[in-house]
């Protein structure tokens, strides 16, 4: 089995996000960037399948500007065999990413594509689903467990009512939820080995994909500051405020 | 500004994340246990920490000193005990086995030590010979098939748990420092009780005595009798820079705690970070830390580039550890009573930072080294 995993470079989850003064987006200059945490889970799952002998090859792909290679390199240090970087300075929307991934899937013919369920920067939660639709493949989203038999994969999904298990015919698209696994730390020898692994570079034009944005961001603003809470003296006062001020009861 | 390569950033990030997720939550319990934190150090070894500076052929990763320092700074930020244990194993306890050991020693002791399946210690200091190496009196007398070792060493870190000991002893007609390897089951090796220390509680440290201890000729690590001092001198700069960086790490932890606390603690109706007295203290701490980091990594870069670095390594150790001690003291003052309370980590930083002031040469001794480099 050949697995392709998509990873995205995002602002590190520990960084306190600052909105740009001109309200066009968030500040990314001199900000620590990391691999999207859900994508780390996707890579980890791929590496575990490779270690178990279920997968023969694990390809990590990403798209974006210069720093993207660093994120792919992290995936290689975790255990991916090789990388593909689609270089683009455009802000890539989920549909454009899904189209690029489809083009890469056509080239690479993987049996399984694993993605994070969403990226922590825009929280779109769309790419995996769009990709499955474009490819016409089965999809198992929000996966917390994968089991393989023959040409099928059973996907346990975390849904509102509990857990749902789907059996998909491969090739398939999987998106990862938090509990699928705990990603490993890249070890020093593996970081060094990752230096020697190849990252192929290509452009959206090479893949014949138009990535022109279809959406316009009007503005990005800080969330409204929360006002300080009020201590109430009695239950009656609380009920009165809920009824007459907050108007929730 | 220090320019980092992609690999250096990746290494730093790995150990930063490991420190945040694994070491910091466990740090207090590790120290309270007063035992070598084998499980935690083993995890660092599995991430490649111990072999970091050794060539790939020897099972290491062959990274430069700057990369090693980046990893060390992160771990020291989490726990000085853990950082000290892993540094001793990586930079001292295994060093001469890799450099000078025969195939048997490398296979049977060095390789398992990279994964922390064996622990190494180094025996240098003696009760009457600290900075004054010329006073080392442990002696190795040649005998049939090897040497008989007699003498007493002290401040041997990791000794109570060590599987092998690199020993500096006098040998030959000229009584010069020579390096030997003693395994823990050799007759005549006696490990004393652990020394009670004010800080770095989880790094057990003992006296070690050699009473007619027979060392086979295969375990004389020195190729030439009397080459010990030269080997030691080569190692010292690296140890000094590494110790400077341990200071940088703990100072970072102290500053982070102080900044956070100053924003939470309210007095006179507002957070104490609104008061200029506290702001100035924080500014001094941040500036000390920044300067300590620069002087330390500068020395590491010189060493990596093969440029002269003896003076700079001594300056880095002197300045960075003294600055770290100031930062930890200032952090405790911002915490006031709570800086004195065992329930907050600041008291641990204040106790542990003193470890960095001593190992690799005291501040006063380093000043002598620096003065000598100025041809004073």
What are the salient characteristics of this protein?
heterodimer, A: 249 residues, alpha/beta, Rossmann fold, 9-stranded mixed β-sheet, two-stranded antiparallel ribbon, 11 strands, 28% helix, globular, B: 376 residues, alpha+beta, 4-stranded antiparallel β-sheet, 3-stranded mixed β-sheet, 16% strand
Describe what this molecule looks like in 3D:
The complex is a heterodimer of chains A (249) and B (376). With 249 residues, chain A is of the alpha/beta class. Chain A has a single domain, classed as 3-Layer(aba) Sandwich (Rossmann fold), CATH 3.40.50.620. Chain A has six helices and eleven strands. Chain A has helices spanning 37-51, 68-78, 94-108, 127-135, 188-196, 235-245; strands spanning 2-6, 9-11, 33-35, 57-64, 82-87, 112-116, 138-149, 152-159, 162-169, 172-176, 199-202. A nine-stranded mixed β-sheet of chain A has the order 9-8-7-10-6-1-4-5-11, with helices on both faces. In chain A, α2 (68-78) crosses α5 (188-196) and α3 (94-108) crosses α4. The longest helix of chain A is centred in the first third of the chain and has 15 residues, at 37-51. The radius of gyration of chain A is 21 Å and the shape is globular. Chain A starts with a strand and ends with a helix. The mean pLDDT of chain A is 94. With 376 residues, chain B is of the alpha+beta class. Chain B is built from eleven helices and nine strands. Chain B has helices spanning 6-33, 38-46, 65-78, 80-93, 95-100, 103-114, 228-264, 276-305, 310-335, 346-358, 363-373, and strands at 120-123, 139-143, 146-157, 164-171, 176-183, 189-194, 205-216, 266-267, 270-271. In chain B, strands 2-3-7-6 form a four-stranded antiparallel β-sheet, with no helix packed on it. In chain B, α3 packs antiparallel against α4 (80-93) and α9 packs antiparallel against α10. The longest helix of chain B is centred in the middle third of the chain and has 37 residues, at 228-264. Chain B starts with 5 loop residues before the first helix and ends with a helix. Chains A and B meet through α2 and α5 of A and α1 of B.
